[in-house]
Input
Amino acid sequence: MRKRIVGPSNAEPSGQSEGWLNLDQIATVEVTSEHPSFPIESVFASSNGPGWRASQEGEQRIRIIFDEPVSVRRIQLRFNEAESERTQEFSLRWSPAIGGRYVEILRQRWNFSPTGSTTEFEDYTVQIEGVSVLELTIDPDVSGHNAFATLAEWRVG
Output
């Protein structure tokens, strides 16, 4: 997978039975920060890797930039937090052009608790044509406490 760490055609399925896009072959990913032990590539891998973690506290963005516009029918996200109690908010947006206007797909909050809810798994069915960019923005703690954004898995189909 190609990637860039930055500051503030139709895709072929990867061969998996559920028709996930092979992002390694058709896209570049941009992240606002990345901890060296938790690379962004692991969230797109089919095996359970370490997931991604920001190297800086606070809000973070991850963009998937497609080489050619694609149709998106399904999006899965998984977040894990077993150590601290916090309320996370994320938003998912798309754009038909690099540098173009974004359209929000959804915005959602989730309460993590080490003694209760430690995993958030979302599986969305969408009908979006001509997607050039998907952008995930994560505010790891809406109360303003110091927290690092994380993501365990992101699949696009």
